[in-house]
């Protein structure tokens, strides 16, 4: 019976210097580079020695591991060797920083979603009830707004416009004027716009607040595009049980004028271009009058000159006027 010592190239021995596997017939250690006698312990050698004369050409695994562990890069400049630490590149650091921030944002977003979900689970009944109520309210407001939109304030304005422009006394009855106030003489309130063949009207209204405003002007450039306003209010009636229908009517009584004269009795009076006597004997006495809509121009002439008491108005279908 015999014993096999293995093949010649097998690493069955151990280097005494570096404790690495050592070939059976190797003349030098493949790791530390010591000679065979030192590797076998025949010659004295320290454990950490480096054998310069027998240093292998390639970089060993042990050397590479040592270099990576200290994290250094060696630069050879002529005969001088410098060492500098490996520093992460700025671009890589910035990329990592952005990646961390993005991850934090995603985590915060998921936490918020989770918090909202938990809140909805805890208050599911109240949220469902609130949603139902809001849906019903919004539906009601939508339908009611549609009903309000069907009303047209001009339907109430058309009759009053015709009556007022034609100086018809029924105008004051529909405007619910105070019967104790006199009507300004129609002879001095003639308005050529009454002969206009057509009128132009525009309006704005809010069915929820119950307010509306119409503006009416006679068609034609010769009327100088003067328009008079009428304020309206809403009268509500029930429709479909829970909704309201609007009927528009005048919101204010007709316009009034408080007329006063200067103290000089010889002052001549002209109303809308017509002679109206003197202050001592006026065609229209001082006092309060109901006015039709349209222009009102009163002139006082003293010593042939227009007095500071003169005034000029364009009267709307409401308002209080005076010549103080």
- String of helices and strands: EEHHEEHHHHEEEEEEEEEEEEE
Shape: elongated
Low-confidence residue ranges: 1-8, 52-58, 68-83
The main sheet comes to: 5 strands, antiparallel
What percent of the residues sit in helical stretches (DSSP H or I)?
A: 25-40%
Span of the ends, CA to CA: 149 Å
Mean pLDDT comes to 79
Q: How many beta strands in the DSSP annotation? A: 17
What portion of residues belong to β-strands?
25-35%
- Count of spatially separate domains: 4
Q: Kindly name the structural category.
A: alpha+beta
Number of helices: 6
Q: Work out the radius of gyration.
A: 54 Å
Explain the overall architecture:
The protein has six helices and 17 strands. It has 324 residues and is an alpha+beta fold. The protein has four domains: 13-72, no CATH class; 91-149; 154-250; 256-322, Immunoglobulin-like (Sandwich). Strands 11, 12, 14, 15 and 16 form a five-stranded antiparallel β-sheet that branches. A four-stranded mixed β-sheet has the order 5-13-10-17, with no helix packed on it. The protein has a four-stranded antiparallel β-sheet with strand order 6-7-8-9. The longest helix is centred in the first third of the chain and has 33 residues, at 90-122. It is elongated, with a radius of gyration of 54 Å.
Summarize this entry quickly.
The strands form five sheets. Strands 11, 12, 14, 15 and 16 form a five-stranded antiparallel β-sheet that branches. Strands 5-13-10-17 form a four-stranded mixed β-sheet, with no helix packed on it. It contains six helices and 17 strands. With 324 residues, it is α+β, with helices and mostly antiparallel strands.
């Amino acid at each position: 019976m015999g014993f096999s010592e293995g093949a010649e190239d097998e690493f069955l021995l151990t280097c005494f210097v570096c404790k690495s596997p050592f070939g059976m017939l190797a003349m030098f250690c493949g790791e530390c580079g010591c000679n065979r006698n030192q590797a076998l312990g025949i010659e004295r050698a320290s454990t950490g020695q480096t054998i310069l004369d027998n240093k292998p050409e390639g970089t060993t695994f042990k050397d590479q591991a040592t270099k990576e562990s200290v994290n250094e890069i060696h630069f050879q400049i002529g005969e001088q060797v410098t060492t500098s630490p490996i520093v992460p590149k700025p671009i890589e650091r910035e990329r990592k920083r952005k990646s961390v921030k993005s991850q934090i944002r995603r985590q915060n977003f998921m936490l918020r979603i989770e918090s909202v979900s938990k809140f909805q689970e805890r208050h599911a009944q109240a949220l469902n009830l609130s949603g139902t109520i809001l849906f019903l309210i919004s539906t009601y407001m939508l339908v009611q707004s549609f009903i309000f939109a069907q009303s047209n304030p001009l339907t109430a304005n058309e009759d009053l416009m015709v009556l007022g422009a034609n100086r018809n006394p029924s105008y004051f009855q529909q405007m619910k004027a105070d019967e104790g106030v006199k009507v300004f003489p129609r002879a001095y309130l003639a308005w050529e716009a009454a002969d206009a063949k057509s009128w132009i009207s525009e309006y704005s209204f809010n069915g929820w607040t119950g307010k509306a405003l119409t503006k009416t002007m006679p068609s034609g450039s010769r009327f100088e595009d003067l328009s008079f306003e009428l304020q309206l209010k809403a009268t509500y009636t029930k429709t479909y049980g829970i909704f309201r229908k609007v009927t528009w009517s005048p919101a204010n009584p007709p316009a009034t004028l408080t007329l006063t004269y200067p103290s000089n009795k010889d002052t001549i009076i002209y109303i809308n271009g017509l002679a109206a006597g003197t202050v001592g004997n006026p065609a229209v006495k001082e006092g309060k009058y109901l006015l039709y809509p349209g222009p009102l121009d009163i002139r006082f002439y003293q010593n042939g000159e227009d007095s500071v008491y003169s005034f000029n108005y364009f009267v709307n279908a409401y308002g209080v006027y005076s010549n103080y």
